[in-house]
Please model this.
Amino acid sequence: MSGARHWEQDKEATVYVGNIDERVTDSLVWELMLQAGRIVNVHLPKDRVTQSHQGYGFVEFISEEDAEYAARVMNQVRLYGKPIRVNKASADKQKPLD
Model:
């Protein structure tokens, strides 16, 4: 497809953002996450038929430290009354912080 994205995503510097309200846009996620650090990319996967996002997305930061900070401080922030979930995208490989 000509609309496919062609970049290498830094998984260690990427956070998963879930429980996103349907009214939230890529640019709103960008503006919110910019408070945690410098951003490379925001991607909210879209439904092929409706072209609306599917309630989750990924934010790639410049550094792993910014991504870790975003996961700590942005988790449970409310957008349109819904608490978003923010976790490191590579959290399955990480040890708990406890």
Observations:
- DSSP finds two helices and six strands in the chain.
- Strands lie at 14-18, 39-43, 56-61, 78-79, 82-83, 85-88.
